[in-house]
Write a structure and sequence with these properties.
The chain contains 11 helices and 11 strands. It is α+β, with helices and mostly antiparallel strands. Among the domains are: 191 residues, no CATH class; 171 residues, Histidine kinase-like ATPase, C-terminal domain (Heat Shock Protein 90, 2-Layer Sandwich), CATH 3.30.565.10. The longest helix has 102 residues.
Length: 539
């Protein structure tokens, strides 16, 4: 992705993040203000409105009704004393002027109604207040007065007063919140937004970003610290660029040195490969010479004996030879010729076998072959190494397994495993057996052969099992091991042969290598064949 797009996405992410932060801070401040100011104001206003409502209804209405009742109590004394209702009617007319007075009943001592007023409109007792006063004169009871007073008007006045009070509280709350929000935005949010923009510029790599100068408060001190930090970062970045240039120059020089070292290592590797090729060739020649020595020696001995017998029979023939002597000579010639033919056939078989192994090892040609014959030829080439040792090689492979693969690389794998067992598994032991057995198997519907190379040697420590196929890993460093044998085995099996190799081992219980390769090897190019040939020769 281009750097411009990366920078744009980074800027968009920073803007979105800052927007969320500002929104979060504003929301937080609003919640704090509401909880600390609005909520208590609403609670207090609600309590005040409720108390005013109750006071207006109960206290004011009861006081008015009580005043009317007291007035009637005092004014009805003389009319009741004189039993003259007409004297009390003017007072009754004065009281009933108040529309909240619903009913007035003046009764005598005997319970009879003396004066009565009842408003025409219907009224509910739940919305009215009734007060009763006894009337007496000089300690003598004359009767009673009962007044029913409506609470409807009081409720309306209380509702109006409550609405006015609620309006005042809401207006004051809105005003307070607006003023506080303005102050918070101007003194908190805006400075914080400016500082965030400056910080985003610095975070984006623009160390020339100007830090805004603010008032001498917390944000002012923060802006001062940001300016100090920006200056330090700019100085550090400048120093860093200089150090990067210095380190780059040093790395260029070091890269040149490493390149020279790599060239030397590649040259050393080539020398090592060449020496390994010569060693492999020398081992092969030594094996051929050693195996041919016996049949050729036997043939030479018999031929010498035939030569001596022929010279002797020539002398006897000149002097006179008997039939018995001629028959003995012919018998000896027949046996000698048979021994010479047998020795020469043995030598011919050895030469043919070694020739096939040599061709396979040096050319890495693909061909069809019997697995048992290839392993037998490989075992024969290894016989000089094992001939004067107490170790044995047992071969148990079906004789009908025909492969279309690379016998040279496969033989190199077996040779390296045998050599590895001889060097490591049987080191310091006076006995040992290497067993090679195989069978046909199916792997993902493909016909394969599974070869197991098992020894009863010392085993491999668990900490080394995961490293035995690593190049140049060896426990015989400085003792003739170069750590390439098992690495080459792994490369050949998983590469040209198209198979897999596993290892299982326990200390003092031996080691088992399991090789699984297809009967028909995958096709490879000529370049890879050359690489395999090189691996085989320096294995």
């Amino acid at each position: 992705m281009p750097s411009k797009q990366v920078a744009l996405k980074t800027e968009e992410a920073a803007t979105s993040r800052n927007s969320r932060r500002r929104a979060s801070l504003q929301t937080f401040l609003v919640v704090v203000v509401f909880v600390s100011i609005a909520f208590p104001a609403l609670i207090t206003g609600g309590v005040l409105i409720r108390e005013n409502y109750q006071r207006t209804i109960e206290h004011d209405s009861r006081a008015a009704a009580g005043s009317y009742a007291d007035l009637l109590q005092a004014g009805m004394t003389m009319p009741l004393w004189n039993v003259a209702p007409s004297l009390g009617e003017p007072l009754l007319d004065t009281v009933k002027i108040d529309p909240s007075v619903l009913r007035i009943v003046v009764q005598g001592i005997d319970g009879e109604t003396f004066l009565r007023y009842e408003k025409d409109s219907e009224f509910e007792r739940d919305e009215s207040l009734e007060i009763t006063r006894s009337i007496s004169f000089e300690g003598e009871p004359l009767g009673s007065v009962s007044l029913m007073y409506s609470l409807k008007a009081a409720r309306q006045r209380a509702a109006a007063d409550s609405q006015l009070l609620l309006t005042i509280i809401i207006f004051q709350l809105i005003f307070s919140l607006g003023v506080l929000s303005y102050i918070l935005r101007r003194r908190v949010v805006q400075p914080l937004t400016a500082l965030e923009k400056a910080a985003d510029g610095i975070a984006g790599g623009d160390l020339k970003t100007a830090i805004p100068v603010m008032q001498n408060d917390e944000f002012g001190r923060l802006s001062l610290q940001l300016e100090i930090m920006r200056g330090s970062l700019e100085q550090s970045f400048t120093n860093l660029e200089e150090r990067v240039k210095e380190r780059t120059a040093e790395l260029v020089d070091l890269n040149k040195e490493l390149k020279g070292t790599l060239d030397k290592l590649q040259q050393a590797q080539g020398n090592l490969v060449q020496s390994e090729k010569l060693a492999a060739l020398g081992s092969l020649v030594a094996g051929v010479a050693h195996e041919l020595n016996t049949p050729l020696g036997n043939g030479l001995t018999v031929a010498s004996s035939i030569y001596d017998s022929t010279r002797q029979i020539e002398r006897q023939f000149a002097e006179g030879i008997t039939r018995a002597e001629l028959e003995n000579y012919l018998k000896d010639m027949n046996e000698g010729a048979h021994l010479v033919v047998a020795s020469l056939e043995r030598a011919s078989e050895l030469v043919s076998g070694f020739k096939q192994v040599a061709v396979d090892r040096t050319s890495a040609q693909r061909r069809q072959f019997k697995l048992e014959e290839m392993l037998a030829e490989t075992k024969m080439t290894l016989s000089p190494m094992f001939k004067h040792t107490p170790y044995k090689i047992l071969l148990r492979v079906p004789n009908d397994v025909m492969m279309d693969s690379y016998p040279g690389p496969l033989g190199q794998v077996i040779t390296n495993l045998m050599n590895n067992a001889l060097i490591h598994a049987f080191d310091g032991r006076n006995h040992g057996v290497i067993e090679i057995y195989g069978e046909r198997v199916l792997v993902n519907d493909d016909e394969c052969v599974q070869l197991c190379v098992v020894d009863d040697g010392r085993g491999i420590p668990q900490e080394n099992l995961s490293r035995i196929f690593d190049p140049f890993f060896t426990t015989k460093l400085g003792e003739g091991g170069n750590g390439l044998g098992m690495h080459i085995v792994h490369n050949i099996v998983t590469g040209v042969l198209g198979g897999s190799i596993k290892v299982r081992s326990e200390i003092d219980s031996g080691t088992e290598f399991t090789i699984t390769v297809p009967l028909v090897a995958p096709l490879i190019g000529s370049g890879k064949e050359e690489l395999i040939r090189g691996d085989m020769l320096h294995g």
